[in-house]
Amino acid sequence: MPESYPLSAQMAAFVAESQRYVAADSSLAAQRAAYGALCRAFSRERPAGLRVNDLQLAGVAVRRYLPGAPAPAAGWPCLLYLHGGGWMLGDLDSHDFICAYLARHLGLVVVAVAYRLAPEQPFPAALEDCLGVWRALRAGHLDVPLAQARLAVAGDSAGGNLAVALCLALRATGQRQPCAQALVYPILSAQALPSHQRCADAPLLSRAELQACLDIYLANPEQQQNPLALPLAASDFVGLAPAFVAAAEFDLLRDDAARYAERLALDGVPVLFEPGPGLVHGCLRGLGRVAEVDRLYQRLCAWLATAV
Questions:
Q1: Pairing relation of β-strands 146-156 and 76-82?
Q2: What are the tens digits of pLDDT across the range 115-131?
Q3: Which of 29, 144, 182, 226 could be cross-linked to 154 through a Cys-Cys bond (beta carbons 3.0 to 4.6 Å apart)?
């Protein structure tokens, strides 16, 4: 562990355990197998009382998490969750316990999306899938009634990127914004931001690993200037949904989150920025193991409970 990252004992143990899951070789299949094993190792049992179904919306596989309580008279509030994994890893199982936790603790429907992955399907395939599912929710195609004024979007890492891109795409076509966007250590830029340099060797996501994901997702380098690919390239964020933006202190993407929060505020968008003291990239898996991660969940849930 580099001495420049003074992690708590709990966080250092989390990082050490995470680093045990190394791909057997450099192949994509090996990377996906290692990521799946990592996610399974940190998974938790779903809270009791949830009703979980796998189905399709707009031709995309999704997983719906429904609280056991009766449906509200006005329909369920709903959170569309977009998983991380560098646009090339992850599926409905990789973030299952995170979605289940949010559904249970917030008392809302969560819909997780198995969007298409790169390199088989590079940009904009993942965004197109997320938009298709979002529009299906808006059209009332889910198997439970939703409160249309209380539909939000959330995501971590590459999923945070897709959540912001979804908001930008909706704005570009004059469609209604989510009632809220919640992002945890999102990938928003390929620029050499200060944290990209200072935290280039940070635990669980290095600069080389980020660059590999960008190269796979954005086959054409010119796409880095497309705000739907890397949202900090947008000229403004006027009119976007109110936001919760969480960074991780020891993460090269720290400034991606901080700059997005700053620009939202400058453009008049209500935003709560969480700097994530003591956190590292990918730490959402540390729920119940790391006190700093538990505090992040508490702040995220408190904000979503008010916003959604």
A1: parallel
A2: 999 999 999 999 999 99
A3: 182
To the query of whether residue 206 is one of the catalytic residues in this protein, the response is no
Those residues with Cβ within 8 angstroms of residue 19's Cβ, 6 or more apart along the chain or in another chain = 203, 204
Mean pLDDT computed over 95-118: 97
Place of tokens 């690993």: 209
Question: Cβ–Cβ contacts within 10 Å for residue 49, how many?
Answer: 11
Please state the length of the chain: 308
Question: In the annotation, is 281 catalytic?
Answer: yes
What is the average per-residue pLDDT within 30-48?
96
Q: 13-307: what fold?
A: Rossmann fold (3.40.50)
Q: How far apart are CA 152 and CA 279, in angstroms?
A: 25
Domain boundaries, the chain: 13-307
**Selection from 173, 175, 172, 137 nearest residue 153 by Cα:** 137
The one catalytic residue in 91, 96, 156, 251 is 251
- Which residue of the set 18, 94, 157, 189 is catalytic? 157
Residue type for position 182: A
Q: Tell me whether residue 96 is one of the annotated catalytic residues.
A: no
Rg (CA), the chain: 18
- Whole-angstrom Cα distance, residue 95 to residue 35? 11
CA distance 52 to 65: 5
C-alpha 131/C-alpha 137 separation (Å) is 10
